[in-house]
Write the structure tokens for this entry.
Amino acid sequence: MSQPHTARLMDGARLARDLVERTTDKVAALTRETGTPPCLATVLVGDDPASVTYVRMKRARCEKAGIRSRHVALPAATTTTELVGAVAALSDDPGVHGILLQHPVGPHIDERAAFEAIAPGKDVDGVTAASFAAMSLGLPGFVSCTPGGIMRLLEEYGVDAAGRHAVVVGRSPILGLPVGMLLLARDATVTYCHSRTRGLTDIVREADILVAAVGRPEFIRTEDVKPGAVVVDAGYNPGNVGDVEASARTRAGLITPVPGGVGPMTVAVLLAQTAEAAARGLGTE
Ligand code: NAP
């Protein structure tokens, strides 16, 4: 009797470990050479438990890689002007090489204004309009970390996007929108789906490369995955549940597991981009 089909898994945990290892070596060399370790500033507004945990995890990972972190904790009542001022001060500080503004920042704050206060050379999380434009035009700059991680995974597993139909479900500025632009730059034919899309299921069924970035557990059903498709599940919902049904691996050709797929790549790219910003800031690149 033949074995049931199982997709090849894209091992983000392993690839992230490799990238962090290379970054750690680069950071050590840079610190030796210049006497100054790279420094990432983290900015957190309020005390949302998930955000607190994310920032703590990112700072711990920095420290392990030899990157110093400087934390700026602001009260939940911080105004847009105050936040923009705090971020601008970090942009002007030569001792800071990268800036991470943890989001969401709260509904009363103009998040875009706060992001735009990050100097492009320190935008290691790839959130500014300048970074987005540079990425879209194929110019040097920092990419949003999760899309950057997804593209590294596709490259590692030899996925050639040229001429293939890539369907991205989700269009958030940090995830869906940039990942579609990056796939377009790899010559995919890209379709975006979002909350106003009609006939979403029919579009998903056509996807040679499917990126799920919706934020809804198991939103993509196994039966709607094209047999042999490359499936990237960026979703991370409570209980380690992705945006794609777990059984989709019985239909896909290549798929990211949840956890251990896209998730670990995000922080790894953040560290790599911080090291890169520091190398430029310290004048070694
Ligand atoms: P988001 O800002 O909430 O965006 C969700 C997107 O999904 C929006 O574009 C929205 O459409 C679309 N959407 C929502 N409901 C839909 C529906 N019923 N049909 C079609 N489209 C729908 O979320 P995000 O920040 O991009 O995150 C998406 C997922 O990725 C979440 O699970 C999040 O946890 C995960 N994530 C993971 C990482 C990581 O490191 N692994 C990093 C970031 C995010 P509209 O634009 O029309 O509202």
In short: The pocket of NAP is lined by residues 146, 169-172, 174-176, 193-197, 200, 213-216, 234-237, 243, 262-263, 266 (CB under 6 Å). The two ends are 58 Å apart (CA to CA). The mean pLDDT is 97.
